Amino acid sequence: MPAEPSSENLNDVIVTTWRAESARLVGALTRMTRDLDLAEDLAQDALVAALEQWPTTGVPENTGAWLMAVAKRRGVDHFRRADTLRHKTAELERAHAGEEAAMPDLDGQVDHIEDDVLRLIFLSCHPALTPESRAALTLRLVGGLTTAEIARGFLVSESSMGQRISRAKKTLVTTRAEFELPSGSERTARLGDVMAVIYLIFNEGYSATAGEDWMRVDLANEAMRLARMLVAFAPDDVEVLGLQALLEIQASRMAARLDSNGKPVLLEAQDRSRWDALLVRRGLAVLGRAEQLAASGDPVGKYFLQACIAAEHARAGQAEDTNWHRIAALYDVLASAAPGAVVEVNRAVAHGRAFGPDAGLAVLAGLDAGALRDSPLLPSVRGDLLERAGLHAQAAEAFTEAAGLTNNEGERAVLQRRVIENLGHRPTSH
Q1: Considering only CA atoms, which of 409, 354, 408, 360 is closest in space to residue 383?
Q2: Among 252, 266, 250, 249, which residue's Cα sits nearest to residue 214?
Q3: Which of 139, 216, 308, 410 sits most deeply, having the most CB atoms within 10 A of its CB?
Q4: Helix, strand or coil for residue 157?
Q5: Which helix (H) or strand (E) element contains residue 27?
Q6: Are 246 and 306 in contact (CB under 8 A)?
Q7: With 0-12 CB in 10 A as exposed, 13-18 as middle and 19+ as buried, what is 21?
Q8: Burial of residue 44, with CB atoms counted within 10 A of its CB: 0-12 exposed, 13-18 middle, 19 or more buried
Q9: What is the block-wise mean pLDDT of the chain (430 residues), using blocks of 10 residues?
């Protein structure tokens, strides 16, 4: 007879189950009740019931079905008590039929429930919401993260994050957002919003904009999970495949981005043996599928192109093996497909490596003077190019400027170290 799980292990089981099932649960309940707040409350009630009952009764074989049955039962009770919504009772009771005798087998409803998850993703990324609110609501409803976990990820107070999520829900109500999948051109546009939110979450995890941590691995992992879910819904979309490939390949480097002392390590100095080979293989395989579709004429965009760039780094066994000419050419295409200051700064890096630092500085010279004014990205790249050009005093000034702009302690430490290295450099006598 297997040993009973410890309370700590049981809590892990419940948390893992909640992360896996919460989106299906909230999505299905939203479809049934047409009330997002109520759906989330019912799902939370089911979670509380699991916390209370599973330590005594044991973990059920079909945890998702158990949670769904409890949530539906609580929903029926709610509508029975609500006189003004009594007409909803029959609808929920039909869904609830037979549950008293046995927990339902949801296998026959998988496709429908998966559609509910997709609807929930699109609802969380409604265009009426700000990008920040979309990210928070997606992590809450689709990722199953608590308000406290989301707040820690974005370095705000739990109360502030709670208010942000609450405002987002109210906005969905006031705009009468439909819990239906968009179609046609609207679906294409909204799919772009969904991908942008997933990428935003990943970037905050991969390179935290503030705080002491260089990375927030939980956020990056959650973004990868969401990207994989999106591929399951749109398996033949080049950009969706490109997004997953990009995230998998970039995430493969995370273990190598900190040294044994916890200090940040930049890409070209990383020990590539510490890159996650499984994530690299998975990312390249997904990119291969996207490349086949692109070769047949499907249009490509910024996620596919960035994945192609990330793949060039992944294929290089050592930093000096990197095909910078290929990367520079890809950035030139990306600059046309998705123009913007961040792309131009990264294009400057690629041109600087491929054709020399003067070529990179020339790309930066073409940027608007006010571009990325509050970001450390531009001065840090300028400093790197100046250092490679042997202009160490100017490089130190640029790195000092960048260090003053960052809100991330790990990034500040890297930049300050480069200031010291350039100030200490003695010109070579000729």
Answers
A1: 360
A2: 266
A3: 139
A4: coil
A5: helix 7-33
A6: yes
A7: buried
A8: middle
A9: 58 81 87 86 90 89 88 80 56 55 36 67 90 89 84 83 94 88 78 89 80 76 89 91 98 92 88 96 97 93 97 95 97 95 96 97 91 90 96 96 90 93 69
Q: How does DSSP classify residue 268?
A: G
Burial of 218 (0-12, 13-18, 19+ CB in 10 A): middle
pTM here is: 0.77
Q: Is the dihedral of CA 42, 88, 173, 131 positive or negative?
A: positive
CA pair distance 405, 403, nearest whole angstrom: 5
Which helix (H) or strand (E) segment is 240 a member of?
helix 238-251
Per-residue pLDDT tens digits for 232-280: 888 999 999 999 999 999 999 999 998 888 888 889 999 999 999 999 9
d(CA 350, CA 342) in angstroms, rounded, equals 13
- Count of all residues that appear for the chain in the document: 430
Distance CA 25, CA 117 (A): 8
The residue assigned the tokens 């005093």 is 393
Q: Mention every residue, 6+ apart, whose C-beta is less than 8 A from residue 277.
A: 252
Distance of alpha carbon 384 from its chain centroid, rounded? 28
Between CA 354 and CA 390 the distance in angstroms is 17
Helix boundaries (H) for 142-183: 147-153, 158-174
Looking at residue 210, its pLDDT comes to: 64
Q: What is the pLDDT of residue 82?
A: 63
Residue type, 222: E
CB under 8 Å, gap of 24 or more: what pairs does 409-416 form? 409/211, 409/212, 409/213, 410/208, 410/212, 410/213, 410/214, 410/263, 410/264, 411/207, 411/214, 411/264, 411/376, 413/263, 413/264, 414/263, 414/264, 414/266, 415/376, 415/380, 415/383
- Given this model, what pLDDT does residue 111 score? 37
> From CA 375, how far away is CA 367, in angstroms rounded?
14
- Residue 228's SS3 state is helix
Q: Are 108 and 19 in contact (CB under 8 A)?
A: no
Round to whole Å and give the CA distance between 331 and 2: 56
Please give the angle made by the CA atoms of 388, 389 and 391, to the nearest 5 degrees.
Answer: 105
Give the other-Cβ count within 10 Å of 250's Cβ.
22
pLDDT at position 264: 86
Question: What are φ and ψ of residue 62, in 5° steps?
Answer: -110, 90
Name the token pair of 244.
């997953």
Task: Compute the C-alpha angle 304/339/241, nearest 5°.
Answer: 15
* Residues in contact with 172: Cβ distance below 8 Å, sequence separation at least 6, in sequence order: 36, 123, 126, 128, 129
